[in-house]
Specification:
Strand content: 15-25%
Radius of gyration: 23 Å
Number of helices: 18
Number of domains: 3
Structural class: alpha/beta
Largest sheet: 5 strands, parallel
CATH topology of the largest domain: FAD/NAD(P)-binding domain
Distance between the termini: 54 Å
Shape: globular
Strand order of the largest sheet: 3-2-1-4-16
Length: 469
């Protein structure tokens, strides 16, 4: 029998230890503790070392998964970390927030009859081990090739593009509009899922490779793409400005005091430290908080509300849990922490008191009809089913649109009807010569690893196009 078919007798997946729910709802510390060396070794030994590793085909950045897992089995954790970094510049981040269960782990042969290899947990282990034990090994870089590339946005797409290019000898500058680098990694994902010190150290690694960083620089305001290319000598530009324009529901009362977009709510908490009592940009720390939506951002918002002191944090979602786009692990953690889920209902108005402060969310019950364009069954309102949920804060987490500033200030770049920049999926090239784009500004809101994959694709095109010039 082919060893790849002998799956039934393999040891079970080793779960990561984590903070107890009753403890973690009172702090912003990371929930999982990570693997010990013994646990990582035990999980790595489950790998079948397939001759045709399907797991790699499921990874948007093509991490050499069996190779780094084998190095863990050999006890060479530093080499395992270096192996991951050959194709992934942000392993500590990916190991924490990427949806491996629908990508590499979904392709794992072991998962056909049991638990797949915990690729994400092992990736996190390697990155954390290298950071904590060292030494940090800087790979050999190609000599400077005289070509200068600007990167707009320091989120996952921009950072990945920068890392790929600097290794090939390009002079790379990343332009970040905010006062901290990292994009959605720092303003959108809470500390308990992705510690900001981890993000900083991943960015520091890129800076050590030679990437330059300009913060508080708003491309489109401080300078346009055309100005950077014609006046500052940039040979190419990559746009990775993300999807930072909040989407609202356009319902009555949505401008009441205590209604936040998830973007603002999480930015104030994650980046501006609103959980500190004397923060310059405070939040209304509601006692009863309603979060509208069913994605990871909704889970992040509802779980953040608990940690900010909410007595009751509630998710309101118009479909059922089966249709929720959030990762199963995030839904599981939210339920463990006591978050209430109001399924098959949607807000139709926000009710405010005489001073304009939120006092309730008026909702309508829904039932599922025929599938819509997303393939999920369409929610249909149930007549006469209105009811109120008492609350003092409402967070709208139903998505974000692309940041419009770069398209608006670059008139000769093609844009879709949705406001996204039009770029080739296979090459990242836009309609404007030597301007490339990738990540949420092209696809709309998606995952960190998808943005990183787009950054790698665009970097390959930049290398091809500029080296020919």
């Amino acid at each position: 029998m082919n060893p790849e078919q002998k799956t039934t007798a393999r040891p079970k997946h080793i779960n990561m230890r984590e903070q107890a729910p009753e403890d973690r709802i009172h702090n912003f510390k990371e929930v999982p503790f990570g693997y010990s060396e013994e646990e990582a070794m035990g999980e790595a030994k489950r790998c079948l070392q397939c001759k045709k590793p399907l797991c790699v085909t499921g990874c948007p950045v093509n991490v050499k998964i069996p190779e780094f897992v084998k190095l863990i089995v050999d006890g060479d954790y530093s080499a395992a970390a270096r192996k991951i970094k050959e194709t992934n510049a942000l392993p500590a981040i990916c190991g924490r927030v990427c949806p491996q269960e629908t990508q590499c782990e979904e392709k794992c042969i072991l998962g056909k009859k049991g638990d797949p290899i915990a690729v994400g947990n092992l990736e996190r282990f390697c990155a954390d081990w290298e950071r904590e034990h060292g030494p940090l090994v800087i790979p050999e870089l190609k000599p400077n090739n005289g070509k200068k590339v600007g990167i707009i946005g320091s989120g996952p797409a921009g950072l990945t593009t920068a890392g790929e290019l600097v290794k090939e000898g390009f002079d790379v500058t990343v332009f970040e509009a905010l006062h901290e680098a990292g994009g959605v990694l720092v303003y959108g994902i809470p500390e308990f899922r992705l510690p900001k010190d981890i993000v900083k150290k991943e960015i520091d690694y890129l800076l050590k490779l030679g990437v330059k960083l300009e913060k508080n620089f708003i491309v489109g305001k401080t300078a346009t793409i055309d100005e950077l290319m014609s006046e500052e000598g940039f040979d190419a530009m990559f746009v990775g400005s993300g999807a930072g324009l909040p989407v609202f529901m356009n319902i009555p009362g949505e401008n009441s005091i205590g209604v936040y977009s998830a973007n603002e709510y999480l930015t104030r908490s994650n980046l501006m430290k609103a959980f500190v009592n004397d923060a310059d940009t405070p939040l209304i720390k509601g006692k009863r908080v309603v979060t509208v939506g069913g994605g990871n951002v909704a889970m992040d918002s509802a779980r953040t509300a608990l940690r900010l002191g909410a007595e009751k944090s509630m998710i309101v979602y118009r479909r059922t849990e089966a249709e929720m786009p959030a990762r199963k692990a995030e839904i599981h953690h939210a339920r463990q922490e006591g978050i209430d889920f109001h399924m098959l209902c949607a807000p139709v108005a926000v009710i405010a008191d005489e001073r304009g402060f939120v006092r309730a969310a008026r909702c309508l019950r829904m039932e599922l009809g025929e599938p819509d364009a997303s393939g999920r069954r369409r929610p249909v309102p149930v007549k006469g089913s209105e009811f109120d949920i008492d609350c003092d804060v409402v967070i709208i987490a139903i998505g974000n649109n692309p940041n419009p500033l770069v398209p608006q200030t670059t008139p000769d770049i093609a844009v879709s009807k949705h406001g996204t920049i039009t770029a080739g999926e296979a090459d990242g090239r836009t309609s404007k010569k030597f301007v490339y784009a990738g990540g949420d500004i092209v696809t709309g809101a998606a995952t960190v690893i998808q943005a990183m994959g787009a950054g790698k694709v665009a970097a390959k095109s930049i290398i091809e196009d500029l080296i020919k010039v």
